[in-house]
Amino acid sequence: MHRLCQTNLTSARAARRFHDALEDEVTQPTTTSTDPTTSIPIPKIQNVVSSVNLDTIIDLYELALRANNTEYNPKRFHAVVMRMRSPRSTANIFSSGKMIVTGTNSLATSRLATLKFARMVEKAGFNARFEDYAVENIVASCNVGFGVNLDALARTHALICVYESEIFPGLVYHVFEPKVTVMLFGNGKVVLTGSKIHESLLRAFELVYPVLVEFMRD
Question: Where is the composition biased (Low complexity) (predicted)?
């Protein structure tokens, strides 16, 4: 049996944001096969979180004044929020020079967006560099094309999953090898997160998919 472990309800509450954001993204199956036992859908990347060190101290007030498409409200958040349309993405830039970029749907566009944001900071008059770029998290999703009986699944796997429908509409559990958090919804939606490696998300889904088939809703 693959090693699975109960996750906590904090993860479930945080994961609600992913479910809401993906409401319109994964309503259709990602495979055309009518036999769920012979063809496995391929989860698609929905969001990549990356970070980089700009290696310079940044005056956030000045950055917000000089750069376009920025927001800065230090009473709410101690970072400048910068947005870009192509590729569509958002950067949180801190005075220490750390920058977090979210919103892209591939590893390549995540790196491209991070580079472009760094260039925008440089154009605003700061000696920004591009150091220690790293992918921090990947979120992928798919729709298996059939409903899943979460109540029955939760009863059968009570020791390895969390299902509190009054708090969060999905069933949540961790896969340890590879380490991935998987969220399952009754309508067939699946969201995978918690890994920096895309292949780990795909492997985790391969491990979980037979369980979904087992608890396919009539």
Answer: 27-40
pTM recorded for the entire structure: 0.82
Per-residue pLDDT band at 38 (split at 50, 70, 90):
low
Residue 2 has pLDDT above 50, yes or no: no
| 120 and 67 both lie in a single domain | yes
Total of domains in the chain = 2
Residue 126 contacts residue 56 (beta carbons within 8 Å): yes
35 in any annotated domain: no
Boundary-marking domain end, from 95, 114, 136: 136
Q: Give which of 69, 15, 54, 38 is closest to 190, Cα–Cα.
A: 15
Q: For every residue of the chain, which 3-state class applies, written as one string?
A: CCCEECCCHHHHHHHHHHHHHCCCCCCCCCCCCCCCCCCCCCCEEEEEEEEEECCCCCCHHHHHHHCCCEECCCCCCCCEEEEEECCEEEEEECCCCEEEEEEECCHHHHHHHHHHHHHHHHHCCCCCCCEEEEEEEEEEEEECCCCECHHHHHHHCCCCCECCCCCCCCEEEEEECCEEEEEECCCCEEEEEEECCHHHHHHHHHHHHHHHHHCECC
State the pLDDT at residue 173: 78
CB 48 within 8 A of CB 102: yes
CATH of the domain at 149: 3.30.310.10
- 130 and 149 in a single domain? The answer is no
